[in-house]
């Protein structure tokens, strides 16, 4: 036993000295101990467990089951008998004839990621003369090639607590503690007031039994006056205002009430919630496909290419977001028009007030969600799929300031903190154009019509030319990495490509304002024609996505035109639904979209949008095995993500959003 181990150690030392000199003696010794104990006539238990935790090729390779994850928890449970090391789980990123995949391997924790890469490249990790890193089977490759190790990432030390994480943990703790303290304070105060009232009622009762003397009446009046004065002082006190702003007893009823904050346009609630569910459904499949799926080829062939899966991720990418932009533009114009009701012009004070309100609406919950996500990431015990939380962790530490300035769609888009925050940046930038459009509407309507037309043309040309020049896919991009990156970075997140639906919303609000005394829909004939056009537009937007040729080798000019128009057309079709429902021509659709329960969910929709990717990231990152796609599995994942999202959204709304809105008197 000793002689073979010494010979193996000596030979490996020579190889390392000659080859790379990148492996420490401690790492080398522990690795050789493990390999020797594994290859012994009677392998030791810990070595068997480390080998058992190794990722091995499984079934379903032709369907996309390339990654060999292994057993994360089994590896971490290993402790060498000598106590000199324990198991550490590492992921080797390898490539064979252009096919990239991952192999999970269990190594001594004395080895760093770079050292594991060096050991793998020197091909000394063997069991019974066979490499632990088995190549792909022959039917997957054209030649008898070997694996090439690109790099290695080990689980140890990925999420160390630094100043940024500590600050996020402290802020998260304060956001949770303040409502608790405020609720306890309010409860105690209510008990004290109740007790005082009971004592006064006893005094009143005794006074009645004693003949209701004039002296008792004056005493009672004086007591009530003192209580009222003290109550007034407490309400005016700043500390009392702060505490009551965070009080759950007052915030929960405002959220859980079936009456929405603004039922002037009740159909908006249904559109907002259904669009949110559409986005959650798409992200459920998208994030599972990126990291956790063992039959990704089957998922792509079925979900991405069949219209039946439109509400998952098939067809045009995330039309629900364009519905959001439509609603945002509509409400933005309505809000600013109300500011100009008692004024003949648009003043800078109005603009500053409008911008301030929008910032205060977006940023408190947005920045709080970032802190909460970093806090959760730093506290969670991650599984084999740490890439998603690690991406959020690293990027937020590096470019958090872009989220503060609401420019994530321009700065580090591919590596942004909370990648879904690109929507907020676009939304805020779009809101900055609302005062200009309304100013032209108030002062010079012909100029407004020309400006709106010009903005539509600019958005259309920018989207069309970019799509044609970069040959952007119409559907969810799955081609080579550069093409996918161009889609998300150059087109999907850029305001000059996404402004159309917001502009439709603004135009719709202005039209309804003009037609306030005279309805837009004259009679039932107009209504029927409008509904037919709306449904036909939606049908064409969806159908053409499966018909037009967007392949790189034969990219069609019609595909580029489609990219430039389809989001704006979708918004226009949904805009008709709003008009028809508002003017009494909605029928069953109006009843569905105006369901009062949507009002409750609509109140927490912003918090749900911010939290649902975090919940999906938590779910994916805590897994230790690959996820197998089946329709029923995906449906259950969607239901689970939706329930947890609504729960977390409700909690964030009453703990953060409503308190800060009340505190800042928005």
UniProtKB/TrEMBL annotation:
Alphabetized UniProt keyword annotations: Membrane, Signal, Transmembrane, Transmembrane helix
Domain Nose resistant-to-fluoxetine protein N-terminal: 24-139
One MF term in the entry's GO annotations: acyltransferase activity, transferring groups other than amino-acyl groups
Keyword Iron: no
Transmembrane spans: 163-191, 273-291, 311-339, 360-382, 454-476, 496-514, 526-548, 568-592, 604-622, 634-656
Pfam families: Acyl_transf_3, NRF
Domain of life, source organism: Eukaryota
Signal sequence residues: 1-20
Protein name: Nose resistant-to-fluoxetine protein N-terminal domain-containing protein
Lineage, broadest ranks: Eukaryota, Metazoa, Chordata, Craniata, Vertebrata
């Amino acid at each position: 036993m000793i002689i073979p181990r010494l010979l193996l150690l000596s030979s490996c030392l020579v190889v390392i000295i000659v080859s790379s000199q990148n492996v420490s003696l401690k790492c080398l010794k522990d690795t050789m101990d493990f390999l020797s104990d594994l290859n012994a006539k009677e392998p030791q238990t810990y070595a068997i467990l480390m080998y058992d935790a190794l990722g091995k090729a499984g079934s379903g390779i032709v369907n996309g089951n390339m990654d060999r994850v292994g057993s994360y928890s089994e590896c971490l449970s290993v402790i060498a008998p000598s106590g000199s090391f324990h198991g550490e789980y590492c992921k080797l990123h390898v490539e064979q004839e252009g096919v990239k995949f991952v192999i999970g391997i269990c190594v001594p924790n004395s080895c760093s990621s770079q050292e594991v890469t060096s050991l793998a490249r020197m091909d000394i990790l063997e069991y019974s003369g066979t490499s632990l890193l088995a190549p792909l089977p022959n039917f997957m490759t054209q030649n008898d090639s070997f694996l090439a190790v690109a790099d290695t990432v080990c689980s140890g030390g990925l999420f160390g607590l630094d100043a940024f994480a500590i600050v996020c943990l402290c802020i998260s703790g304060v956001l949770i503690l303040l409502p608790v303290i405020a609720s306890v304070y309010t409860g105690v105060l209510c008990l004290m007031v109740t007790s005082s009232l009971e004592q006064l009622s006893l005094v009143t009762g005794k006074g009645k039994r004693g003949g209701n003397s004039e002296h008792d009446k004056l005493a009672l009046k004086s007591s009530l006056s003192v209580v009222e004065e003290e109550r007034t002082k407490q309400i005016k006190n700043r500390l009392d205002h702060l505490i009551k702003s965070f009080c759950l007893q007052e915030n929960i009823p405002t959220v859980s009430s079936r009456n929405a904050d603004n039922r002037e346009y009740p159909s908006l609630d249904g559109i907002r919630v259904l669009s949110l569910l559409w986005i959650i459904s798409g992200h459920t499949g998208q994030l599972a496909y990126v990291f956790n799926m063992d039959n990704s080829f089957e998922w792509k062939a079925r979900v991405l290419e069949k219209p039946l899966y439109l509400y998952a991720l098939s067809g045009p990418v995330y039309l629900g977001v364009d519905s959001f932009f439509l609603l945002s533009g509509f409400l933005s114009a309505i809000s600013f028009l109300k500011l100009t009701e008692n004024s003949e012009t648009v003043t800078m004070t109005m603009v500053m007030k409008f911008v301030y309100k929008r910032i205060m609406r977006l940023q408190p919950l947005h920045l709080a969600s970032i802190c909460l996500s970093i806090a959760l990431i730093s506290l969670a015990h991650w599984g084999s799929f740490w890439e998603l939380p690690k991406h959020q962790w690293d990027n937020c530490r590096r470019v958090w300031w872009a989220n503060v300035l609401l420019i994530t769609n321009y700065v580090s888009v591919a590596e942004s903190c909370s990648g879904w925050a690109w929507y907020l940046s676009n939304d805020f930038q779009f809101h900055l154009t609302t005062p200009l459009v309304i100013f032209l509407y108030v002062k010079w309507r012909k100029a407004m019509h020309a400006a709106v037309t010009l903005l539509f043309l600019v958005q259309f040309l920018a989207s069309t030319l970019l799509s044609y020049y970069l040959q952007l896919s119409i559907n969810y991009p799955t081609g080579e990495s550069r093409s996918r990156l161009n889609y998300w970075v150059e087109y999907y997140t850029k305001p000059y490509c996404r402004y159309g639906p917001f502009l439709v919303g603004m135009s719709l609000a202005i039209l309804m304002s003009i037609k306030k005394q005279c309805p837009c829909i004259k009679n039932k004939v107009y209504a029927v024609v409008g509904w037919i056009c709306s449904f036909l537009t939606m049908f064409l937007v969806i159908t053409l996505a499966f018909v037009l040729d967007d392949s790189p080798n034969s990219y069609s000019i019609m595909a580029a035109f489609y990219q430039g128009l389809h989001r704006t057309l979708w918004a226009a079709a949904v805009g008709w639904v709003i008009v028809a429902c508002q003017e009494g021509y909605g029928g069953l659709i109006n009843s569905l979209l105006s369901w009062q329960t949507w009002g409750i969910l609509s109140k927490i929709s912003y918090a749900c949008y911010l939290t649902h990717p975090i919940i999906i990231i938590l779910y994916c990152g805590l897994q230790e095995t690959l996820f197998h796609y089946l329709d029923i599995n995906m449906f259950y994942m969607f239901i689970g993500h939706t329930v947890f999202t609504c729960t977390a959204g409700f909690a964030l709304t009453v703990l953060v959003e409503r308190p800060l809105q009340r505190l800042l008197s928005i």
